[in-house]
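[step 3/7] fold_predict: job queued, chain A
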Amino acid sequence: MAITLDIKSELPIAIKWTNEHTKQLPFAISRALNATARGDKRTSGSDRRSIIADMERLTKRSFDRPKPQTVSSFFIPPSKSASKRNLSVMIGAKDRPYRRNRYLVGNIQGGSRPLKLYEREFAQRGKLPSGQVLVPTKIVKRDQYGNPKRTEIKALVRGLNKPEGTRGSAFVGRPDQGDRPFGVYKVVRKGSLRAYFIAQQGTSYNNPLAGIYTKANARAKQTFGPYLRKFLAQAVAENVKDGRADMRTGLL
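[step 4/7] structure written:
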């Protein structure tokens, strides 16, 4: 979503406008755009007055035990910050060390949840109906964020490499006996299986971040003007101090 700001309405009105103000305006606008997006550390409390800070707070509040990497996903890519020749800024989601953009976009815009890494890993090792996801059962140990522990996943993967039907072996599919559903099973003893993951119909995101655009737009309109007036005054004052300011009016 693009946010459009009215530059003219945010300009200072209680000053004498000079050539130096006109000259410094693009630079001040670019600084104000970047500060509106990510804050300005040189300003006291500014880290609490930015679009990215609002996004992080909303993510932390909306998700159940989100990972710190998820909360801090939003950033300005190096080539997307504003400059005096490019008066626009773009906020994206980090995709390293793992892809977060697709996950966050899904929680903003909705849509079907894509398979997680371990789901794709298991699907490649057995038979699962298309369009289904794997839901961990109660016996699967979770980490502090509620996700299956990697040690559990690795143990099941090792079980997939053991001879079929032996104790400790695992398989992906549907058991031959009974009417148990598709999933990931482990042989605990001969003829006895334990379900670690059960296949269910694919789910959709419930859009916990649906209001993020509205919040970003409100923050931009609230914050951009003060930043612009501050940075413009600073730029002009610095050149006045250095004796390089053109304080004439109406020539540029």
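[step 5/7] annotate
The longest strand covers residues 192-201.
The chain has eight helices and six strands.
exit 0
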